[in-house]
Every structure is written in structure tokens, then in C-alpha cells.
Design brief:
The protein is an alpha/beta fold and 428 residues long. Among the domains are: 31 residues, no CATH class; 170 residues, 3-Layer(aba) Sandwich (Peroxisomal Thiolase, Chain A, domain 1). The protein is 35% helix and 16% strand. Strands 1, 2, 3, 4, 5, 6, 7, 8, 9 and 10 form a 10-stranded mixed sheet that branches. Strand 3, helix 2 and strand 4 form a beta-alpha-beta unit. Helix 1 packs across helix 2. The longest helix has 21 residues. The radius of gyration is 22 Å and the shape is globular.
């Protein structure tokens, strides 16, 4: 609905986030709600929205406690917005907050709301730890009993193994492979060299550090719990240090994916304010960019495709909608779940065979100018709180386009479950 020629243009007012920090470091005692509420409150303060009612707020988290069932609404209540502002929880794995951005943008484009916030958060420090299924079954059986005897009998079956807790996992239920193990399969299929992965990882750290040093993140990142910048950025890393790291997922001698060229488990939150242009004018708020196109895709990762390759398809379809070439962009923000994923994505777009056999194209989409890729650092350096990354990228892209004073940017985010979410943004 963003590009049917009849819908309203969707304005990006700006984004904000807290520093992204490695799990079990700065935010050990911070919950999803703590991080999300702090981020929303800062956004409310930045744009003078205290006490005001917005059309909707879409937020999400991938790893959350059952008590977070109404995370978005509870975060809104604590943000300083009017309590007449609704909130909705969303989840599409690592694409959660960019999906939330699309959700809010489409509502604005359709004229259903005039303004809204999209975002996400994740804490890998505060993961839910639950009882094993056997223990849960005993408790429920006891609960269903109608007499003391019926309630007591199930506990006769209680054994020591019932007390072993279950932690949330990051393996795919269908393949039983972790994301890193899945990416090793793709890296081998595309023959992604270890050198290329480590070079991309090094560039991610260098660019992220330079962005902080130049002040780029000054109005995009607000301090939280004594953290002032993303604490995964390695200012002292070198190609040689990255090369010295051992593979983390395939230890047979053929593995290439390491802790250094992968995203770390990360805590953090991010949010973006969207509006109609008329609402922005009425509030005297700047419009710095527009969200113009979006596309979601999925692949058969169970039988044939790479788990994280769906954005390759989504971008191809989105370019058809927009009648653009892959080269028609000033900036590219490709989520670096793994350096190998980013490299494999670029290789797929350049492969005549892949584009013909998988995308149905007569010619490859071609290469991009790498000087335009993740110019302020990517997820390998900045970190990746699953549900927060999309909003981080949208906020970054909006500022990049605004500072340039024109142009367009392409966003690509891969997700668990073999899905991908992509978008196009244009300068206001």
C-alpha cells in the first residue's frame, strides 16, 4: 500500500535507541520492558510528545517472558505518551522491528492513523528459564485434580530429572541446526572465503568506531544503565586478530564462521517515529526521509535453500515494484547476522545462474558499490538484539539520507525461519 499511487507518503521523523550491549554485560538486570520503555521515553522527550496520543505503537521482542504478553502497551504506559495511545506486540524473528515499521507505515499510508512508533527490543541476559515439560505436566495434572488425593497422586511420579530447567534455544525446529550451523552450510555452498568474512567484520568495527568518533550517533543513541556506546565495537581489532580465531560452529577443519565474524548475543532496544506529512507540519517536526517500498519473502530452508537467503528474493521482487536497479541506491544497509550471510547475499545477486534459476531473471542483479554498504558499521560490530535491529537500521538510514540531502537507501534483514524483510527509503 505504500506505492499504489493513491496512498499517502509516509514520513520518517527520526529514530532513537539505547546502546547495544553484549549479553550479560551492562544490562544484566534490565528487562525487555525496562529497555523498551527507556527508549520510548527518550523518543517522546526528543520530539516533545509527552501527554500526546499517537495512532498506534507496534513493538516486539523475540525472546520474552510470558509476563511480557502485553509488552508494547506496558512500555507505552511508561513512556510519557498519553494512555490513550494503543500498543500492539509483533514478532517476525530478527525482522521484528522492521516489520513493525512496515505495519505502522501502512496504517499511515492508508489514512488509518496519522502518527505512530515502531520498534523492538531483546534481552539475552534476562531469558526465560522454565520448568521441564515433565514437571509442567505433573503440575497441571495436580491442578486438575478435584480432591486432595487426585491433586497429590501425580507427584508420586516426581523424579530428579524433572528439576532440570529448559532454556530458550536458537536452533531451527525443522532442521535442528543453530543459525550458525545453518550459515556454515550456506557459506560452503557459495564458497564464501574466510578472508572475505574477516575483512567485512573488520570494516564493520572500523566504520562503527569512526561513526561514534565523528558524532554521527550522538542524536541516535541515548545512554542507558551507564552504557554510552555499543560495547561490542572492537577499536583495537585487526585482520590478523580476526584470522586467529577458531571456527565456532564447524570444528571439523572446514569451518569459516567465528565469533569475530558473527553477531554476538546482544541486549538493546530501538524505536522510530513515523507520521503523515500533514501531522509532521502541524507538530512542527522535521521530515527527514520517507519509507516507500517494502517486501517480505521466505525460502524452503528445510530442503534446499540457505536459512538466511530470503532477502535475496525479497529485494529482487521489491526492485520490480519500484522499477529500480540494484545499483540505484546511495546507501545499502544489509544486516550482518554473519559476515558470511552478507557476502553470500552479494554473491547471489551477482550470479547469473542463481538469478536465472532462483529469481527467474534474465540477467544478474549485479554488484553494488561496497563503499556504500553499512557505512556507519553493521551488526557484527554494533551487535544484534534480535527484535531491535530493524529499527536501528531504519533510524540510521533516515539520518544518512537526510545528511546527504537526497537519494535513496536499500534495507535488507534476514531472519530465522528462512524469511527476509526488505525496504526502500528515500530522502525527504
Amino acid at each position: 500500500m505504500l506505492h499504489d499511487g493513491r496512498s499517502m507518503r509516509v514520513a520518517v521523523i527520526g529514530g532513537l535507541r539505547i546502546p547495544f550491549c553484549r549479553a550479560h554485560s551492562s544490562y544484566t538486570d534490565a528487562s525487555n520492558q525496562d529497555m523498551m520503555t527507556a527508549t520510548l521515553a527518550a523518543l517522546v522527550e526528543k520530539y516533545d510528545l509527552r501527554g500526546q496520543a499517537l495512532g498506534d505503537v507496534a513493538l516486539g521482542a523475540v525472546i520474552k517472558h510470558s509476563s511480557d504478553w502485553n509488552l508494547a502497551r506496558e512500555s507505552v504506559i511508561g513512556s510519557g505518551l498519553s494512555l490513550r495511545t494503543p500498543g500492539v506486540d509483533m514478532q517476525r524473528a530478527c525482522g521484528t522491528s522492521i516489520e513493525a515499521c512496515i505495519h505502522i507505515a501502512n496504517k499511515i499510508a492508508l489514512g488509518q492513523i496519522e502518527s505512530g512508533i515502531a520498534g523492538g527490543c531483546d534481552s539475552l541476559s534476562d531469558v526465560p528459564v522454565v520448568f521441564a515439560e515433565g514437571f509442567r505436566s505433573l503440575m497441571l495434572a495436580s491442578y486438575r485434580g478435584n480432591s486432595f488425593l487426585q491433586k497429590a497422586l501425580p507427584w508420586i511420579r516426581l523424579r530428579p530429572h524433572h528439576f532440570v530447567p529448559e532454556f530458550p534455544g536458537v536452533t531451527e525446529p525443522r532442521t535442528k541446526l543453530s543459525m550458525g550451523e545453518s550459515m556454515e552450510v550456506t557459506a560452503k555452498k557459495f564458497q564464501v572465503a574466510r578472508d572475505h568474512q574477516d575483512q567485512l567484520a573488520l570494516a564493520s568495527h572500523i566504520k562503527a568506531a569512526a561513526a561514534y568518533d565523528s558524532g554521527f550517533y550522538d542524536d541516535l543513541v541515548i545512554p542507558f544503565r551507564d552504557a554510552e556506546e555499543d560495547n561490542n565495537i572492537r577499536r583495537d581489532t585487526t585482520f590478523e586478530k580476526l584470522q586467529a580465531l577458531k571456527p565456532s560452529f564447524d570444528k571439523s577443519g572446514d569451518g569459516t564462521i567465528t565469533a569475530g565474524n558473527s553477531t554476538p548475543l546482544t541486549d538493546g532496544a530501538a524505536a522510530v517515529l513515523f507520521a503523515s506529512e500533514e501531522w509532521a507540519r502541524q507538530k512542527n517536526l522535521p521530515v527527514i526521509a520517507h519509507l516507500t517500498y517494502c517486501k517480505v519473502a521466505a525460502v524452503d530452508f528445510v530442503n534446499s535453500e540457505g536459512l538466511l537467503m530470503a532477502p535475496v528474493y525479497a529485494v529482487a521482487e521489491m526492485l520490480k515494484d519500484a522499477k529500480l536497479r540494484l545499483q540505484d541506491f546511495d546507501f545499502y544497509e544489509i544486516h550482518e547476522a554473519f559476515a558470511a550471510q552478507t557476502v553470500a547475499t552479494l554473491m547471489a545477486w551477482q550470479s547469473e545462474k542463481f538469478c536465472r534459476d532462483h529469481l527467474g531473471l534474465n540477467q544478474p542483479l549485479g554488484p553494488i558499490d561496497l563503499a556504500k554498504l553499512n557505512v556507519k558499521g553493521g551488526s557484527v560490530a554494533i551487535g544484534h538484539p534480535f527484535a531491535a535491529t530493524g529499527a536501528r537500521i531504519v533510524g540510521t538510514m533516515a539520518k544518512l539520507l537526510h545528511e546527504k540531502g537526497g537519494g535513496r537507501g536499500l534495507i535488507s534483514v534476514c531472519t530465522a525461519g528462512g524469511m527476509g524483510v526488505t525496504a526502500i527509503m528515500e530522502a525527504a
